[in-house]
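Running this now, will post back.
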Amino acid sequence: MLIDKHGRKITYLRVSVTDRCNLRCFYCSSKDAIAWLPHEEILSYEELLEIVKVAISLGIEKIRLTGGEPLVRKDFVSLVAAISKIPGLRDLSLTTNGILLAEFAEDLKKAGLNRINISLDTLDPKKYKTICGYNKLGDVLRGIDKALEMGFSPVKINTVVMKGLNEDEILDLAKLTIERPVEVRFIEFMPVGDGAAWEEKYFMPVAEIKKRVEMLGPLVPAQKIGAGPARVYTLPNACGKIGFISAITEHFCDKCNRLRLTPEGKLRMCLFSDEEIDLKPYLRGNFSRKDLKEAFLKAIKNKPAKRSLSFSPHRIMRSIGG
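Update: finished.
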């Protein structure tokens, strides 16, 4: 069992398998030219598996696979299948932009994937192109349909709310939960990464987002799955749920149960901190699995009690892992 020095039980590891992506979302990418990690710098599937096995042996129970866009990496389904077979794993999930999901959902289900989070900030094709760089909205909607058809539960839809860009769609997105068993999660716009397009004028606090949603009816607190930061509710007679994640206005550091692994093998103790432990030498050098375990324990020891209120991480989100 992994308990940090602040008494938090660490059970969750987010694993980024690539920094590459088939979208150019303005808040996730840098304004500068994109420089992808060289292929040899990214961890192989064998190396990722070794890290995941060590993590689970120490007490990690939940693995989430992220990117960039994880589905663009070749043979990704084989990695899902291998991880799903590791004894001690209780939950294996995926965060994706959904563009390739209709193609891979069935294979992912067969491989042992439990749950899916899909990023979707708008239901308007023109806005989708403005926010994400390409008009791929139809592909994402087909991916959501396929995930539901394959029986993934819950299917969560992650929506970053940006004032002046998609705030007028809050009600339309919330309405998705009335007839469909999805959980729409409204997320505050976060400043992450040097050169990323974060501006305060886009920011809308969760309190205001929630007030908008309540125009559809009273929000009733609902039971949520997992120990994530979302506060979850249901609308009257709705099939799905609505969640709110207040990463800026209401910090949830005291309940943080996670670590993050970047595509090139850096273990991050906090999203809003650039402190990392490089695990790659433990995989490509003359080290043992015991040494790799010690590196994990060092990370737990160094996990901060809370995020810095004045610090924004220098790495952009696609290079950290969404």
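The domain at 12-320 is CATH 3.20.20.70 (TIM Barrel). More later if anyone needs it.
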